[in-house]
Design goal:
single chain; alpha/beta; Spore Coat Polysaccharide Biosynthesis Protein SpsA, Chain A; 8-stranded mixed sheet; 7 helices; 22% strand; globular
């Protein structure tokens, strides 16, 4: 039976989020921190043996102060990130349990993940060494080199928007990072692609949005309300209102 270790990527600068109190993975969504939504879903699965959240060193004291009890109850490990996303994931990869067969990387700022999508990606990983969820691009795409005038319309017929969680065989992911050199991929599937590894695609979800701006929180609330509420056997975190820490 596959054993999965999950890495939640939360070490970004959140420069476009523009909130003086929170970075986007730690913002409140229905009075709960964004990162907790996906953490809870992964921890509900019996085949998930480990969850690691990667945070910026500058966030360490505040994060541990706010969420120390949550981390203790959930059993989530904390790793400090690096200058780039790939550095952060590599730091977390060094902490992955040696008996895990697969590593899952998920953007902590994607709170609208659902159990069905996790199941789909995990199932595909049993027969594919690298798997990502993705959705077809539906909007008309324009190329503009200067940002103020259209150069041309881009053919969207074979374009997909990559999402997370992305799942890799652990040994493959270790090999990928050992050979990444100066590459600075924006996600792990790009690194696999650059190194020539095949990547399988499963159907993603239009609800699986990534929080980028504060306006995205309103859309995320609507997405969460449209999904079935997960049922947990016991309280998953000790505080119902994270706003107590604000």
């Amino acid at each position: 039976m596959p054993k999965f270790s999950v890495i939640l990527a939360a070490a970004g600068k959140s420069s476009r989020f523009r909130d003086p109190n929170y970075k986007k993975p730690f913002a409140l969504l229905n009075r709960k921190a964004v990162w907790l939504y996906s953490a809870e879903l992964f921890l509900k699965r019996n085949d998930v043996k480990q969850v690691i959240i990667v945070i910026s060193p500058e966030d360490k004291d505040e994060f541990l102060g706010k969420y120390g009890p949550n981390l203790a109850v959930l059993g989530v490990e904390v790793v400090l990130g690096g200058a780039e996303r790939s550095d952060s994931v590599q730091n977390a990869l060094a902490k992955v349990d040696s008996d895990s067969t697969h590593v899952v990387i998920h953007d902590a700022a994607r709170p609208c993940l659902n159990a069905d999508l996790i199941e789909s990606v995990f199932q595909s990983s049993k027969t594919n060494p690298a798997v990502i969820p993705a959705v077809p691009v539906t909007s008309t795409l324009k190329l503009s080199k200067n940002g103020s005038a259209v150069d041309k319309t881009v053919d969207r017929s074979h374009l997909y928007e990559a999402q997370t969680p992305q799942v890799f065989e652990r040994e493959l992911l270790i090999s990928m990072f050992a050979n990444r050199g100066e590459l600075k991929p924006t996600d792990e599937s790009q690194l696999a692609e650059e190194l020539g590894y095949p990547i399988a695609i499963v159907k993603g979800s239009v609800f699986n949005i990534k929080i980028t701006s504060k306006q995205d929180l309103a859309f995320a609330r609507a997405c969460l309300e449209s999904q079935p509420k997960p049922k947990f056997d016991a309280p998953i975190h000790p505080f119902a209102d994270d706003n107590l820490f604000r």
